[in-house]
Design a protein that fits this description.
Length: 93
């Protein structure tokens, strides 16, 4: 059994998402993302998802990252924003 880490609710509850990911990752099986406020795709709110993605890469996470959000505009644009936020340049760090 693994934990489903919902970063939208974690941000609302306590923030410090990178510290949370570092602590919880050994028991995480899936990560869900949506931005705060509004529960829309990454890039529409306060969460720095590229920094979260970089931390996940640094920590060696290879599991599922699922978008559980409302599209702020067009669904294809929301998917592109999600993809952009979680595409990490392997040479950068």
């Amino acid at each position: 059994m693994r934990l489903n880490l919902d970063l939208y609710h974690a941000q609302i509850g306590e923030g410090n998402l990178i510290q949370l990911v570092e602590r919880a990752l050994p028991v995480v099986g899936e990560i869900q993302v949506a931005d705060v406020p509004g529960r829309c795709e990454p890039g529409t709110g306060e969460i720095n998802y590229p920094a979260v993605a970089a931390a996940l890469q640094r920590l060696g996470y290879t599991g599922v990252v699922g978008l559980e959000a409302w599209a702020s505009r067009e669904s294809t644009e929301a998917l592109e924003r999600f993809r952009a936020a979680f595409t990490v340049d392997a040479t950068s760090g």
